């Protein structure tokens, strides 16, 4: 697939996320009209891996509504969020203003981040939880991340495990409720077209742009893209918990997150890399 075709599909995704945003802003899933606790989207090990953030320049790529960006700011970071959706950036700015936190938000495609941020460098780049699947070219992404980090700066990815993405969320015709491998674990087969009329949150149907395209990326692809960009991987974790119950059979744990009954399988992973 050509770079022009990639750009066309990413524009379709951008339109879809613009259309999703009003649904997400009013959803119970995000709960923005309640007492907002942005740290509920973070596992305890994330803060351990991120370390001290006070006074650090931290960039959150593909930030959507900026809920996690707010948590980074609450930890004392000079936080910046970047997203390609104008509607998401507007909502994120409104949310930050209501929270009384000083966060800068920039609208740009992640591949254009170096230019959009005018060459600014960061101590930490944070991304994940449904971000990398919208990027067709991880080598290009890794190069952008390396250029955004100061020497010694850290990238922290906390992303849904490719095994999670490979499991089918709904049974097919004449099938039971068992979770089956329905999609590729590894990348290379091109984009997966999805009907995003309804998104992962509660709420009404998305109006307008309902086409969405995702690319599968195995762990090896992520690691190799970063090492090829000159970054060193320092830690890789796999977790069997998610911050919300994706499937009805999931069990709430002492952490407040959710996991599947036995056997344990990875649903989330985190990767710490250093430039």
UniProtKB/TrEMBL annotation:
Record organism: Streptomyces eurythermus
SUPFAM superfamilies associated with the record: S-adenosyl-L-methionine-dependent methyltransferases
EC number from the UniProt entry: 2.1.1.-
One Gene Ontology MF term: methyltransferase activity
Protein name as it appears in the record: Class I SAM-dependent methyltransferase
Taxonomic lineage of the native organism: Bacteria, Bacillati, Actinomycetota, Actinomycetes, Kitasatosporales
Superkingdom of origin: Bacteria
InterPro entries: Methyltransf_25 (IPR041698), SAM-dependent_MTases_sf (IPR029063)
Domain called Methyltransferase: residue spans: 58-153
GO biological process per UniProt: methylation
Keywords: Methyltransferase, Transferase
